[in-house]
Amino acid sequence: MEQNKETVAVAEDYTVEERDALNERIDEQYKEIIAEGKYKDLLLKCGANSKYSVSNIMLMLEQNPDMTIAKGMNEWAREGRHIKEGAANMEIIAPTKEEYQVTVKDENDQPKLDESGNEIVRTRERTVGFHPVFVFDISATEGTDYKPYAIGKKVSDLEKKNILDGVFAALSAKHWKYKFTDESEFAADENYKIDKEKKTIKICKGMDNATTALTAIEAASKAINDNYKGRSFEGMTGENAEKIEADSRGCILAAHFGLDTSGYKFDYMQNMTEEQTGLFRDNLNLICASTKLVMDKVARAFYKNQQQRAQAAPNPTAVGGGVEVAPDSFREGNAKHSEMEAA
After folding, report:
1. According to the model, what pLDDT value does residue 114 have?
2. From CA 292, how far away is CA 114, in angstroms rounded?
3. Which end of the chain has the smaller Cβ count within 10 Å, N or C?
4. pLDDT band at 10 (very low <50, low <70, confident <90, very high)
5. DSSP 146-202
6. Is 37 helix (H, G, I), strand (E, B) or coil?
7. What is the pLDDT of residues 204-234, one digit of tens each?
8. Ramachandran region, residue 114 (left: φ > 0; alpha: ψ -120 to 50; beta: rest)
9. pTM for the whole structure
10. Facing residues of 180 across strands?
11. 127: which residues sit within 8 A by CB, 6+ positions away?
12. Can you tell me the mean pLDDT for 5-30?
């Protein structure tokens, strides 16, 4: 049973014709990016702007080819920055959401009742359209220095816990899980294995905190990426597609977490046929969706922990703005190989 609620309109939704025109602009931008050899630049932007879809990032690049990090006006204000007078914004696409209620059913498809005998109802949300919102590149703002979180050479126990909490949340959203297993189960060049049948990621025990964190992020992103590929997937397949996907995921994640990305090369993208790059557009959507889910959940885990620490602290001023880590790239040490580390 569904009981509709009124949609809270933030802005007037795009018409079908307007959406079609926007999609054409995004498609043309994708072709231009590939033709000009800027595929890696696109991935770096995806890593730096984890909350946005790849389509919105391409739309921003069409309006401002020099954009680096984008946020809404209120988000920049929370970062201690304000919009410069006369600064240009960028229009992106946001879903218009509608809340509705669903009666919880039992195994016999009958309404479940609470202790008072009332039907148990859950509130859900669905997309009913799309509307414009406006964001600003960091170059259009001024104020407090903005420093995104980066995984350094050393990762504290607290950092590792937050990252694993985020990874677990991302996997749980797709009904996956992870567990740590003995090193004897892995080949010399392996840190993790993915069991698709049991929807489980196996991660090697005994690695240092940084390697464990990066391995979990990398493995979760791959598992979720592959999980998105249902029967309707019409993108590029085969070994070449898997290599590009792995490199692309690694580059996005490395860019997001402040790791070295110089080792990622995508010159081969310009040698692909127009048909191949067209097919790979579907792969790219899934790559960005899977990495976005992991990056967002990790960020939420850090934020949740920070809020808990602030509430528990007797003096709020004693709680810093986050966990302090070294900004340098992750170092190999004696750890096994990792795709992200190989950047």
Report:
1. 86
2. 37
3. N
4. low
5. P------S---HHHHHHHHHHHHHHHHHTT-EEEEE-GGGS-TT-SEEEETTTTEEE
6. coil
7. 999 999 999 999 999 999 999 999 998 789 9
8. beta
9. 0.82
10. 203
11. 95, 96, 97, 98
12. 84
